[in-house]
UniProtKB/TrEMBL annotation:
This is Calcium uptake protein 3, mitochondrial. GO terms for cellular component: mitochondrial intermembrane space; uniplex complex. The gene is MICU3. Its main location: mitochondrion. The keyword Membrane applies. It comes from the Eukaryota.
Amino acid sequence: MFASLEFEGQLYMTPHDFIQAVTSDEPKRAKKWRSLSKQELNQILMETPPVWKGSSKLFRNLNEKGVISYTEYLFLLCILTKPHAGFRIAFNMFDTDGNEMVDKKEFLVLQEIFRKKNEKREKRGDEEKRAMLRLQLYGYHTPTNSVLKTEGEDLVPRSYWDTLRRSTSQALFSDLAERADDITSSSDTTLLVHFFGKKGKAELNFEDFYRFMDNLQTEVLEIEFLSYSNGMNTISEEDFAHILLRYTNVENTSSYLENMRGSIPEEKGITFEEFRSFFQFLNNLEDFTIAMQMYNFASRSIGQDEFKRAVYVATGVKLSPHLVNTVFKIFDVDRDDQLSYKEFIGIMKDRLNRGFRGYKPIQRYTTFKSCVRKELYSR
């Protein structure tokens, strides 16, 4: 829907396309694929800044001057819902040799997992259409040999006891690392050049990886906030409600908005820091849910002070009293100044499926762990 570029049969997004895909329900105008020549692609990649020059305006600055593959698109979507505490786990999953650096081959290993998982889900049907889809998404005409096992050969994994001392993720990825030489990329992309340089020889350290992930989350939130703020330092409580309900499965959002309007007579506004803190909390929603279940929250309601304290204890995120009050006014449909599991967490779990609304085949990719573990344990 959002890809606008094509090179040698494979479709790509520009950074602008990606931002549209995660902030809009559909393209603002019909997309027509523009074919790139090798010279045009090289020119785009030549203008890609190195990772140490990254910022929370990277995608906006690149705009149309960049190419993002389908597997990179899935990876970037995973980042948007990853809590900061999980950035180290994500980095370790890439760092298969445990040298605290990620090189290009290690990065491509995880991309191959995305490919193979999608191929396994392909339904039988018109082989010609399936072949065209593989070309458009992955850049090859026929299914590649599995990176996990080559035809007629049993894969002998490296000793898990040797690697388990470092981390479970590296143990799981050890056999993949041994076959990294078999993984090829159809062409370089903006993300590969940004991470590993124009020659592909640079390595990515954790600090740069963390900064990239944090900047991407911040950039998308800034874009959503600015689309409602009209140049002001705050957005209205009603606009905040619109953004929260945007990707949920709530059919009658007007009832939530009416509920909030009647409960907040005087508009104070939501600052960007408040806005960002709430979405940082949502990225930790799984930890919060577990903590609340321990206190039997799933079967009872809680008040504002209890909610605010529980958020901080479970996730480390501090929410302002005004922000908590606004959330309660939006979701407290029975107006008892209490929030139930059904009223809040059930709806907010839908909100984390940003970019996947109505696209059930790949909803499992909305957290980084599920991107990986299903493939690993299916072996």
